[in-house]
Design brief:
alpha/beta, Rossmann fold, single chain, globular
Length: about 180
């Protein structure tokens, strides 16, 4: 089960024209926004990445503003864990659970999930907060990540797992995010 004290949210490569081409973009964006705001509310650390930002551009709005102050690490490796600066920032957090959101599910999210699983991390993939240009690619990637040991859940399940209890003082604020 997710525990907010053990978790980090990893926001992967939501940039430029590629982001605009994602299948189900409206749902993707809404759920990524909810998870980012939930992590901020519950003080779950966030790391962000940008795939070759000099070519693909910076993180798209509204996420660039929403993630102000979050380390946005440029990378050329598809897996976040293939970038030394990401590894350094990730290891410094000393967390054992990772929530993955972003694009593309079948490339960067998938490779990151596999690398983290091989390191013994507990990996949670928000199924409705990741996407690919083609739905089939996302579907196959989610199935492969689940088969490799990742927990694949909807964003709302992840939000409530982080919260754990309706008596938590953050519950009212969290309800505003999901309605």
């Amino acid at each position: 089960m997710l525990n907010r004290d053990d978790a980090v949210l990893v926001f992967i490569d939501v940039q430029g024209r590629l982001h605009e081409l994602m299948d189900g973009k409206e749902t993707l964006d809404a759920n990524m926004g909810k998870l980012i705001q939930c992590a901020q509310l519950l003080e779950v650390p966030i790391l962000g990445t940008e795939q070759i930002p000099e070519k693909l551009g910076p993180t798209n709005e509204p996420f660039k503003t929403l993630l102000d102050g979050v380390p946005m690490i440029g990378k050329s490796a598809f897996s976040c864990y293939g970038e030394p600066e990401f590894v350094e920032n990730f290891q410094a957090l000393e967390k054992k659970q990772v929530i993955l959101i972003g694009i593309e599910a079948h490339i960067c999210v998938y490779q990151t999930a596999i690398d983290l699983l091989e390191l013994g991390m507990e990996v949670f993939v928000a199924a409705d907060a990741v996407s690919s240009r083609m739905l089939e690619n996302k579907t196959l990637a989610l199935e492969s990540m689940r088969n490799a040991g990742a927990v694949v859940l909807p964003a709302e399940s992840i939000l409530m797992a982080l919260l754990r209890d309706a008596k938590d003082p953050a519950f009212r604020e969290l309800l505003k995010l999901i309605k």
